[in-house]
Amino acid sequence: MLQASKSSSTPASSASPLQVVERACPARLSPLETWLQVGLVYALIEAALWTPVGRPNTFCILAAVAGILICTRSAPFSAREMGIAVPSAPAVGWIVFGGILLAAAIPLLSRMLGDNLGPAHRLPLRQACLYAVWALAQQFVLQSFFYVRLESLLSGRWPVLLTALMFSVSHIPNYVLTFSSFAAALFFCEMFRRYRNLFVLGAVHAGLGVLMAANFSDSVMHHMRVGIGFLRFHP
């Protein structure tokens, strides 16, 4: 009996590399779990944008942050899949090149708006640095949270389109940011799909945001606010 027991058991050292990897990697989320995570976090973000400053707003912000952190911590996606990696030379080149093209379009868009009158909201260096951190955080939520989940659910370019649309809707009712963020997010998501790097996208996002603030007046941008903050803005 003892000999039979030994022969029927498989030592851990004899397991194949594939079996070891399968045991080390968590199982993929089910479609229902993935949609629930996307929907819940997006609803909390929208609630944070549309509730007045106060306890409800603070609760929505903290709940959204907690939801993102908890779902990310337990997610089956690798750091590489989430874009947390050293960028390759082609990634840097193409992302920066595309960012320059988008940057060149910003002054043209500004001149097309007849109501773009008055002083712009120029950011001091300290605020610009803080915005760069915020831009990277937005890219993490946009790409490493929403895009990778939608990519696991949808095929083709649908994840790119839907993620860009969600990003754009979150900028309502600031019509300039709603339009420009959709175009920028299409670029961001496509570059992320190809090159899987968060950091270069965050840097380009920061540069585009500072340029938007410098080219559009507060009469249009309301200090680049969105949601209820845009509606309640008073210069």
Tally of discrete structural domains: 2
Largest sheet: none
- Residues in helix, %: over 70%
Query: Structural class of the secondary elements?
Result: mainly alpha
Radius of gyration: 22 Å
Report the sheet-strand fraction.
under 5%
Give average pLDDT, whole number: 87
Oligomerization state of this entry?
single chain
- Tell me the distance between the termini: 86 Å
Q: What coarse outline follows from CA principal-axis ratios?
A: globular
Number of strands: 0
Q: H/E order of the elements?
A: HHHHHHHHHHH
Structure description:
- It is a single chain.
- The protein is mainly α and 235 residues long.
- The chain has two domains: 29-76; 83-235, no CATH class.
- The protein has eleven helices and no strands.
- Residues 1-25 have low confidence and may be disordered.
Question: Helices and strands in order, then pairings?
Answer:
Blueprint: H1 2-8, H2 17-24, H3 31-50, H4 55-73, H5 89-112, H6 125-153, H7 158-169, H8 175-195, H9 198-215, H10 218-221, H11 228-231
Helix pairs in contact: 3-4, 3-6, 5-8, 5-9, 6-7, 6-9, 7-8
